[in-house]
Design goal:
Distance between the termini: 82 Å
Shape: elongated
CATH class of one domain: Mainly Alpha
Radius of gyration: 35 Å
Structural class: mainly alpha
Number of strands: 7
CATH architecture of one domain: Alpha Horseshoe
Strand content: under 5%
Length: 742
């Protein structure tokens, strides 16, 4: 099978044997496949994108081709211009899409070999071919300085970053016929290749393909011209070398790992890798996969065992692998809550590789410093945490590489948060301002995300410092800078800024302005599906309902609450369910206020049914408030009844609701519920129990609860309410004599 990944200058279809057997002159290919995956998901069949080739009559077997795509059509150029491969990987599950393609090709066509034509390993699409998909990379280059430097850069990138560590075959082409002695220019170049590309499979003897003048005039396959100056000989040598490399012992196991790795089937990864390690106990690739599979399957002890085994087998030159494994070791120890050992693993990375020059290794050093700081924070060693973040900023703050600058930005964000914990808001704001000054003009999404986060955090701190106008100014700055962004990570901060701005305006009693901001948020993100954005949307809907209630528009508030419940009622995320629970409770309160007690009780019962058995404390709290509200409604309704038996029955029911509510009530709600329980006990003539409960309620609730209880006793007043108020005064005066209530 042939795959043309040279999207900017596709060429495989120029060779007649590779053209589709169907005669299709504009066959769809890789670009159309990716576009379909992004729009609808992977197709069930590949025959629209992979085509059987014409071949030759003498061919044995079949050849298929996935061309670059319909490169002469406007849609193809639009695809190239609009597709950002970094976003494809980071935000659109690009890795999974390509691994699915790999697995689909294997399952549907069972090819012996798949050849991918990619321009260069450091282009975005070329990187996909060389770093993710390839088992073997054939690196073709000329012997001039430009080619050798570029090839070395690609070679180093593959050695450092490609997850499956493909074997590399070196091909020098096209090379003019010339003397090949060591003292000649050719011989000197070969010695340089042997030195600089020493990890390549054939570094000692690269394949050399001579220049052939025919190729300057036409596209032709020289393997078809074997009688023409023996032009096919070097290609056949390359073919034999590829066949030989493909039989490397660990390769079958690595091939078998592709599909389970794609599916995150860690049990199968472990089974396959273990079989391979039995036969090849020093294989770094298999040991590395085994270590990571045990980590992702949650068996951190075994992951540590194989990490240590891999480190023992790593060569002195395998510094990138060793640094990454030590980072994985730190992650294992974090999961095992062995924080001191975790920090020791990060210290080993810092000490062993802190003076390295390779960016791939320094990236691990920067990550180790960041993770060490975070671990110290979990141990409540906040001063030490800040010191580590400062070291990270000092070491790498002036770096040029994004992989080093991103940990610097993250460290500044965390340092600010730690200063907030230490009640140093001015210092916290100063850190965020430093980040904004340092990275405010950046263009990389990884840094812009931190800039947006710093603006959000700065606004929140200003709110806490009672500087609402300054907080709004910061949120407006964020909206101005990032309001037109497309990246989810930044749009999340935009949504938060709008929500926070609405909250501040509400606190300033600028209710109309607050509503306008909430509406802007809801309109701007009406089509959003990402949980990070849906959370502030749910909160904005809830707050909009609250503001409408404050503006004496209860029906409009209920309409907004219903919109929230319809949109998010079936959610599973706790952060969104909290807004659902609060909305149900407030809807019940609002219905009670507009004299619709039966509708209110139905809403409270829905709230209780949904959340009374949950393990989340916030959701339980609102279920308890629902129980309390139903109990109070029953109590007030009972006071209307002339029939004493019916009245007592309703009092009993209300008491049951109060008692259920107290089982899981939040501390802040207990006083009110206890006060209601005490009142129900009194109306049931259980006055001794009432006194004890009332005393506990007043101890917690103080003057506010005393006033609430007196007001409640005046609703649908009964003759015995006078006696209850006397008891309330007696208990309150007794407690007031013992201590001061405010």
């Amino acid at each position: 099978m042939l795959m043309d990944f040279d999207l900017e200058a596709p060429g495989l279809l120029h060779f007649q044997p590779f053209q589709p057997k169907s005669g299709d002159k504009r066959p769809a290919g890789f670009s159309e496949y990716i576009a379909l995956c992004l729009e609808q998901g992977p197709p069930s069949e590949l025959n629209a994108f992979i085509h059987e080739c014409c071949g030759k009559e003498t061919d044995q077997g079949k050849t298929w081709i996935m061309p670059a795509g319909r490169d002469r059509e406007p849609g193809y150029l639009a695809f190239l211009n609009t597709t950002t491969w970094a976003d494809f990987y980071n935000q659109q599950d690009g890795y999974k899409i390509l691994e699915n393609l790999r697995g689909h090709i294997i399952a549907e066509y069972e090819p012996d070999y798949v050849f991918i034509d990619a321009r260069t390993g450091l282009s975005e699409v070329g990187g996909i071919a060389t770093h993710q998909l390839a088992d073997i990379v054939v690196l073709v280059f000329n012997l001039n300085e430009q080619n050798l430097v570029g090839a070395k850069r690609v070679f180093d990138s593959i050695c450092s970053h490609a997850p499956l560590k493909p074997e590399l075959i070196l091909v020098a082409s096209p090379i003019p016929v010339m003397p090949v002695d060591k003292a000649t220019p050719f011989g000197k170049k070969m010695q340089r290749i042997k030195r600089d590309f020493n990890k390549a499979y054939n570094a000692k003897k690269p394949v050399v393909i001579p220049y052939h003048p025919l190729l300057a005039y036409e596209d032709r396959l020289l393997v078809d011209d074997g009688d023409l100056f023996s032009s096919d000989a070097p290609y056949r040598r390359l073919t034999e070398l590829i066949q030989k490399v493909a039989q490397v012992d660990e390769a079958p196991y690595l091939q078998q790992l592709i599909t389970p790795l794609q599916k995150s089937d860690w049990k199968q990864v472990i089974d396959i890798a273990q079989k391979g390690v039995i036969k090849h106990p020093t294989s770094l690739n298999l040991l590395n996969h085994l270590s990571r599979a045990y980590f992702f399957s949650g068996d951190y002890e075994k992951a540590l065992m194989f990490i240590n085994q891999t480190l023992l087998n790593a060569k002195a030159t395998d510094n990138v692998i060793k640094a990454r494994l030590l980072m994985l070791k730190g992650s294992c120890l974090e999961q095992l809550e062995k924080t001191s050992e975790q920090i020791a693993a990060y210290d080993e990375v810092i000490q062993c590789f802190g003076q390295a020059n390779e960016v791939d290794i320094l990236e691990q050093v920067a990550k180790a410093l960041f993770n060490k700081g975070f671990a110290l924070g979990k141990m409540q060693q906040l001063e030490a945490e800040i010191a580590v973040y400062d070291e990270l900023v000092q070491r790498f703050g002036q770096a040029q590489e994004i992989v080093l600058l991103e940990p610097v930005a993250k460290a500044l964000i965390n340092k600010g948060a730690v200063l907030g914990k230490m009640q140093q808001p001015e210092a916290e704001i100063a850190v965020y301002s430093k980040l904004l000054q340092h990275f405010g003009q950046a263009h990389e999404i990884e840094l812009l995300e931190r800039v947006a986060k710093a603006l959000i955090n700065k606004g929140v701190v200003l709110e806490q410092m009672q500087q609402p106008e300054a907080a709004i100014a910061v949120y407006d700055e964020l909206l101005q800078r990032f309001g037109q962004a497309h990246e989810i990570a930044i749009l999340e901060q935009v949504a938060k800024a709008l929500y926070n701005k609405g909250v501040v305006l509400g606190q300033m009693q600028q209710l109309g302005a607050a509503l306008a901001v909430y509406d802007e948020l809801l309109q701007r993100f009406s089509q959003a599906h990402e949980i990070a954005i849906l959370e502030p949307i749910a909160k904005a809907l809830y707050n909009k309902g609250v503001v409408l209630g404050q503006m004496q528009q209860p029906e409009a508030a209920i309409t907004v609450y219903d919109e929230l419940l319809q949109r998010f009622g079936q959610a599973h995320e706790i952060a969104i369910l909290e807004s659902v629970a609060k909305t149900l409770y407030n809807k019940g309160v609002t219905l009670t206020q507009i004299q619709q007690p039966e509708a209110a009780s139905a809403v409270y019962n829905d709230l209780i049914k949904r959340f009374s058995t949950t393990n989340d404390p916030m959701l339980q709290q609102y279920a308890c408030l629902g129980l309390n509200s139903i109990g109070f409604a029953l109590l007030i309704e009972a006071k209307k009844h002339a029939n004493s038996q019916q009245r007592l029955s309703l009092f009993e029911q209300s008491l049951e609701h109060f008692e259920q509510a107290l089982h899981s009530a939040a501390i802040d709600d207990q006083a009110t519920i206890l006060g209601n329980q005490a009142y129900a006990l009194f109306l049931l003539h259980r006055k001794d129990e009432c006194r004890a409960v009332l005393q506990a309620a007043l101890k917690q609730g103080g003057q506010a609860l005393y006033d609430e209880e007196k007001a409640d006793s005046q609703l649908n007043e009964l003759p015995e309410d006078t006696e209850f108020r006397a008891l309330l005064d007696e208990v309150w005066q007794s407690l007031s004599a013992q201590q001061d209530f405010t």
